[in-house]
Specification:
Helices cover about 75% and strands about 0% of the residues. It is mostly helical and about 325 residues long. The chain has a domain of about 55 residues. About 5% of the residues have low confidence.
C-alpha cells in the first residue's frame, strides 16, 4: 500500500490490528489472508472498507523486509526518520550559505543508520528463507534512504509496516531545489515606477557614482552566485561519494554473503564426510566385536577340550589295581 492519502489511512484505522497481522505474515500467505479479510468485511456490510482491503498490494520481497523492520526495530526506524529530517534541514542551511560540515555529519549519521537497518533486513530475509541478494538489499537501502524526503502518508505507512512498493529517494535536484538569486540591496533609480516624474539631468560625477554602485551590486551578486554554486557542487560531490560508499558497501555485503554460502557448503561437506566416517567406524567396531566374540567362544571351546584331555591323561596315569 503506497501513495495512499491520509483519508485512506484513517479509513483503515478501524481494522488496524487485522492489517498489522496481514503485513506481518509470511509473503506466501499474504494474498489468501487479504482476500479472506476483505470477504469477511463485505459480509459484515463494510463494502467500502472491504474494497480498500482488497486493493492492498502484496509487498515485494525487499519491501516486506522493511515492513518487518518497523515491527522488530521500531526505535531504529524512528531514529532514521529523525536523521532524515536533520539531513534535509542541513541541506537547506547549506543552500542558505552555511558551511557543509553540518551536512556532512548529518549525512554520515543517516548513512550509518541505513547500513545498520540494511544488515538487520538481510538477517530477516535469511530467517524467512529468502536470499539477501545485492539487488534486494539495494532496494531496502533505497527505501530506507527515501524516508528523508517521503510524504507524510508514506512515512505513516513505513512506521506501521504497511508498505507494498519501494520508495524512491529524492534526486539531487529535488533535494537542493532552485538556487535563489540574491536580492538587490538598492533599487536603481533606472527601475523607478513609470509614473514617477521625469528625472532631471544629473551631474556627471553623480552619474559615475551611481554607475559604480550598480557595478558593485552586480559584482556582489556574481560573488554570491559563485558561492552558492560552489556549495552546491560540494553537496553534489558529497552525494556522489555517498553513492560510491553505498556501492562499495553493497559489494562488501555481496562478498560476505558469498563467503558465508561457501562456508555453509564446506561445513555441509564436512558433516557428510564425518557422517560417513562415523558409519564406517561403527561398521568396523561391530565387525571387531563379532570377531572378538568368536575368538572368546573358540577360546572357551579350546579350554574345555584341554580340560577333557588333562582328565583323560590323569586317568591313564593312575596305577591299575
Amino acid at each position: 500500500m503506497n501513495r495512499g492519502s491520509a483519508d485512506d489511512l484513517d479509513a483503515l484505522e478501524s481494522e488496524r490490528a487485522e492489517i498489522d497481522r496481514l503485513f506481518a505474515l509470511p509473503l506466501d500467505r499474504f494474498t489468501a489472508a487479504r482476500d479472506e479479510l476483505s470477504a469477511r468485511l463485505r459480509r459484515e456490510g463494510k463494502r467500502q472498507l472491504a474494497a480498500q482491503i482488497k486493493a492492498l498490494k502484496k509487498p515485494t520481497v525487499p519491501v516486506w523486509a522493511v515492513d518487518q523492520l518497523a515491527r522488530l526495530r521500531p526505535e531504529k526506524m524512528q531514529a532514521l526518520v529523525r536523521a532524515g529530517d536533520a539531513l534535509r534541514q542541513a541541506q537547506g542551511r547549506v543552500l542558505a550559505g552555511a558551511e557543509v560540515e553540518a551536512l556532512r555529519e548529518a549525512s554520515k549519521h543517516e548513512r550509518a543508520l541505513v547500513s545498520e537497518l540494511t544488515r538487520h533486513a538481510a538477517s530477516i530475509l535469511e530467517r524467512a528463507g529468502f536470499s539477501p541478494s545485492p539487488s534486494h538489499l539495494e532496494l531496502v537501502r533505497q527505501t530506507l534512504r527515501a524516508l528523508a524526503s517521503a510524504s507524510e502518508a508514506d512515512r505513516r505507512l513505513a512506521a506501521r509496516g504497511w508498505l507494498s512498493r519501494p520508495l524512491r529517494p529524492a534526486s539531487f535536484g529535488e533535494l537542493l531545489g532552485e538556487i535563489p538569486a540574491p536580492t538587490s540591496r538598492k533599487r536603481s533609480r533606472a527601475t523607478a515606477p513609470a509614473a514617477a516624474a521625469p528625472a532631471r539631468p544629473r551631474p556627471p560625477a553623480k552619474q559615475r557614482e551611481e554607475a559604480r554602485e550598480g557595478f558593485d551590486e552586480q559584482a556582489r551578486r556574481r560573488t554570491e552566485l559563485r558561492r552558492l554554486v560552489r556549495q552546491a557542487r560540494q553537496a553534489r560531490g558529497l552525494a556522489a561519494r555517498e553513492a560510491e560508499s553505498s556501492a562499495r558497501e553493497a559489494e562488501a555485503l555481496e562478498r560476505e554473503v558469498e563467503a558465508l554460502g561457501m562456508r555453509a557448503r564446506q561445513l555441509e561437506r564436512e558433516a557428510q564426510l564425518a557422517g560417513r566416517a562415523a558409519e564406517q567406524a561403527r561398521s568396523k567396531w561391530e565387525k571387531t566385536r563379532a570377531a572378538a566374540a568368536e575368538r572368546r567362544k573358540a577360546a572357551r571351546e579350546s579350554a574345555r577340550r584341554l580340560d577333557r584331555a588333562q582328565r583323560s591323561l590323569e586317568a591313564l596315569d593312575r596305577p591299575q589295581r
